[in-house]
Amino acid sequence: MANDINMVVLVGRLTRDAELRYTNSGIAVCKFSLAVNRRKRSGDNWEEEVSFIDIVVWGKQGEAISRYLEKGKQVSVAGELRQSRWEQDGQSRNKIEVIANNVQLLGGASGSGKFSQNRKENETDAPAQNMQNRNTDNGLSTNGPEQFDDDIPF
Predict the structure, then answer these.
(1) Helices in 2-74 by DSSP H: which ranges?
(2) pLDDT value at residue 150
(3) Is residue 143 part of a domain?
(4) Distance CA 20, CA 67 (A)
(5) H helices then E strands: how many in the chain?
(6) Domain count, the chain
């Protein structure tokens, strides 16, 4: 028996909005395509090479995350490769997809510095400002360990 491993981890951007459908038995199937860039050297120049990968997320995870998967969003996908083979018009066809076990949202759409376009502008800056105020209050610094007046008994 072989000890093979079929695991893939990708980080890329959606090329289109996710498509959510249901099987005849009511199971959710979320499908989207991911563009993954790779830099390669060609002589003295660096070139971008893009791979387009089809992703499938089954069940409740696909149903839950589908509403957040919009074109341009950056995501991380962990899963396994599956190959489908079939005959069409007398020719053998095949397709490789990633069946995702885990999908994580990493950032907003390309070029948007915000998590969501629906948020108010001052809402996006408030948490960072609160952290800065909290760190500068009472003379505390985030550059090193905090100083305590009492001795620690261990």
Answers:
(1) 59-65
(2) 54
(3) no
(4) 9
(5) 2, 6
(6) 1
152 located within any domain: no
Structure tokens at 125: 């800056």
Give the Cα separation of 100 and 77 in Å (integer): 6
What is the per-residue pLDDT across 34-73, written as a single tens digit (0 to 9) for each? 999 998 888 888 889 999 999 999 999 999 999 999 999 9
Residue 12: Cβ-neighbour burial (10 angstroms; 0-12, 13-18, 19+): buried
Contact present, 79 and 102 (Cβ < 8 Å): yes
> Is residue 34 a part of any domain in this protein?
yes
Q: How far apart are CA 144 and CA 96, in angstroms?
A: 49
**Domain span holding position 125:** 8-137
Supply the DSSP symbol for 2: -
Task: Report if pTM > 0.70.
Answer: no
Amino acid at 40: K
Instruction: Tell me what percent of the chain is helix, strand and coil, each rounded to the nearest 5.
Output: 20, 50, 30
Residue ranges in the chain modelled with pLDDT below 50: 111-145, 148, 154
> At 103, which CATH number?
2.40.50.140
Average pLDDT of every residue of the chain: 78
Residue 1 within any structural domain of the chain: no
